[in-house]
Design goal:
By secondary structure, this protein is mostly helical. It has 18 helices and six strands. It has a three-stranded antiparallel beta sheet with strand order 1-2-3. A three-stranded antiparallel beta sheet has the order 4-5-6. The N and C termini lie far apart (65 Å). Bound molecules: acetyl coenzyme *A (ACO).
Length: 427
C-alpha cells in the first residue's frame, strides 16, 4: 500500500501522497493542496520544500555525503578531471575515451569569443567586480550565438560552448577589470591549464604552467560542480521555468551566486581572516562577534542549510591547502589563523549547538590565493566550477514532465481594502 500523509484542516482530513526517493528520503506531495483546501503552505527560504525530482546529485546533510550521479565526491576529486565530471553531470554517465577526446576537441573549438564582445566590455568601468562583468557577458552570449536549441546536437554544442567560453570570459573579465591585454585561449593546453594561462600570461611575462596547480584547479572545480537545489541553481531553474534562453538562466545563476551568503562567501572568508589578523590574531574575537545577537557579523565559511556536520568538500579542500602550499614551498599566515579558528569553533558551545562546521568556502580562498587568483575573482572561480551543475539542472528541468512555471504564493499581511485619497486631502 502506498504511504500517505494526513492533514486536518478546519476539522476535515486530507490525505496526501508521499513520494520516496531512491535513497529513501520522503516528500509529501502537496501539488493539489491549494486546489483541494484553498490553503497554501508557508516555508520562507524553502528549507522544507522540494521543488523538483532530480537524479543528478545526492546529499545527506546529517552524514556529510555528497555524490554526483551516484559517485562519491571523494572518488571524483581523487580520480577524475573537471571536464570528465562536467560530462558526467550533464550526460548522466562517465564518458568513454572516444567521447572524452571528442569533448576536448570541441572545448578547444569553442574556446574563442567574438572580438566584438571584447570591445563591448572594454568600456566597462575599471572598478567593476568581475562577477558583474561575467554575468552580463554570459547574458550577452545569446546575442552573439543566437542558434535555437531544437536538436540534441545543438543542445550539446550550446553546453560545450558555454563551458568553454565561460572560462575564456572569466579570464577576460579579470584582464578587462585591470585594464590589461586579454590573453587568448591556446589549443595545446588542457581546460584548467588554459584558464591559468589566460589569467596570468602577459605580453611582458611568460606564465609557466605548474602541473600541481593544474591538478589543484581540477579538484577545486570538481568540488564546486553541483550541489543540488542551492540558491543559484534554484535561480537557474526558476528563471529557466519562464522559458528564457539558457544564457539568461545561467546569467541569473551567476548573479545569485555573487552574494556573501552563497558563492561570495569565499571572498568574505579572506576578509574575515585578514580582520582577525589585524585584531592581533585572536580568533575568539570573531567567535564572540558571531555569538553577539546585536552584531550582524557571521563566521564566514561556517554553517550550511543542509550539512549539519563537516561539509565533505571542506575536508578535501583543507587537505588541498597543505598539498598546494607545500608544493609551492610557500606559507600563508592566513592558513594558521583559519586552522585556529576552526579548532576554536569546533569546541565552542554556540557553534556546536548551531552546527557551525566549516563549509567548502572556508579553505577554498587559501587554495585560490596560493594559485595567485585575486580575491575579487573567487566567486568567479566558483561560478566556472558550478556551470556543469547549472547546465545539467536546467536540462533536467526542461525535460521534466512535472515542470511548471515557478510561481510561489504568499501570505498577505498588508492593509485590507482602503479608498484612494486625492492629493489635496492627504495630510
Ligand atoms: N555564524 C554565526 N551564526 C550562524 C552562522 C554563521 N556562519 N550560520 C548560521 N548561524 C546561526 C544564525 O544566527 C541562527 O541563529 P539563531 O537560530 O540562534 O537565531 C542559526 O544559526 C540559523 O541560521 P540561518 O541563517 O537560519 O541558517 P541557514 O541554514 O539559513 O544558514 C547559511 C545557512 C546562510 C550558509 C549560514 O550558515 C551562513 O550565513 N553562513 C556564513 C556564510 C557562508 O559561509 N556561506 C556559504 C555557504 S556554502 C555555499 O553556498 C557554497
Amino acid at each position: 500500500m502506498k504511504e500517505t500523509a494526513k492533514i486536518i484542516l478546519d476539522g476535515k482530513t486530507y490525505e496526501l501522497p508521499v513520494i520516496i526517493g531512491s535513497e529513501g528520503e520522503k516528500a509529501v506531495d502537496i501539488r493539489k493542496f491549494k486546489q483541494e483546501t484553498g490553503c497554501i503552505t508557508y516555508d520562507p527560504g524553502f528549507g522544507s520544500t522540494g521543488s523538483c525530482k532530480s537524479s543528478i546529485t545526492f546529499m545527506d546533510g546529517e552524514k556529510g555525503i555528497l555524490r554526483y550521479r551516484g559517485i562519491p565526491i571523494e572518488q571524483l576529486a581523487e580520480k577524475s578531471t573537471f571536464v570528465e565530471t562536467a560530462y558526467l553531470l550533464i550526460n548522466g554517465a562517465l564518458p568513454n575515451s572516444h567521447e572524452l577526446n571528442q569533448i576536448r576537441v570541441h572545448l578547444n573549438d569553442y574556446s574563442m569569443v567574438h572580438e566584438d564582445m571584447q570591445d563591448f566590455f572594454k568600456n566597462y568601468p575599471r572598478a567593476s567586480h568581475p562577477m558583474g562583468i561575467l554575468s552580463a557577458m554570459v547574458n550577452a552570449l545569446r546575442s552573439f550565438y543566437p542558434e535555437l536549441l531544437t536538436t540534441e546536437e545543438t543542445l550539446s554544442a550550446t553546453f560545450l560552448r558555454l563551458l568553454s567560453k565561460v572560462r575564456t570570459l572569466a579570464a577576460m573579465s579579470y584582464k578587462i577589470s585591470r585594464g590589461h591585454k586579454v590573453i587568448y585561449p591556446r589549443q595545446n593546453y588542457t581546460y584548467c591549464a588554459n584558464f591559468l594561462n589566460m589569467m596570468f600570461d602577459s605580453p611582458v611575462r611568460h606564465y609557466e604552467i605548474n602541473e600541481d596547480l593544474v591538478r589543484a584547479l581540477n579538484i577545486f572545480w570538481i568540488l564546486h560542480a553541483d550541489h543540488e537545489q542551492n540558491c543559484s541553481t534554484a535561480a537557474v531553474r526558476v528563471v529557466g521555468s519562464g522559458q528564457v534562453n539558457i544564457y539568461a538562466a545561467i546569467s541569473a545563476g551567476i548573479a545569485a551566486l555573487w552574494g556573501p551568503l552563497h558563492g561570495g562567501a569565499n571572498q568574505a572568508v579572506i576578509h574575515m581572516l585578514e580582520n582577525i589578523t589585524t585584531n592581533g590574531g585572536d580568533v575568539n574575537w570573531a567567535i564572540n562577534k558571531a555569538k553577539d545577537r546585536n552584531d550582524p557579523f557571521r563566521l564566514m565559511g561556517f554553517g550550511h542549510r543542509v550539512y549539519k556536520t563537516y561539509d565533505p568538500r571542506a575536508k578535501i579542500m583543507k587537505k588541498m591547502c597543505d598539498v598546494v602550499l607545500s608544493n609551492l614551498t610557500k606559507a600563508d599566515p592566513l592558513l594558521d589563523i583559519a586552522r585556529k579558528l576552526e579548532e576554536a569553533a569546533l569546541k565552542d558551545d554556540y557553534c556546536v549547538d548551531h552546527n557551525l562546521y566549516p563549509n567548502v568556502d572556508f579553505y577554498s580562498g587559501i587554495v585560490l590565493r596560493a594559485m595567485g587568483i585575486p580575491t575579487t575573482m573567487f566567486p568567479v572561480m566558483f561560478a566556472i566550477g558550478r556551470l556543469p551543475g547549472w547546465i545539467s539542472q536546467w536540462k533536467e528541468s526542461i525535460d521534466d514532465p512535472d515542470w511548471r512555471l515557478s510561481r510561489p504564493r504568499q501570505v498577505y499581511t498588508g492593509p485590507t481594502k482602503i479608498d484612494y485619497i486625492p492629493l489635496e486631502k492627504r495630510k
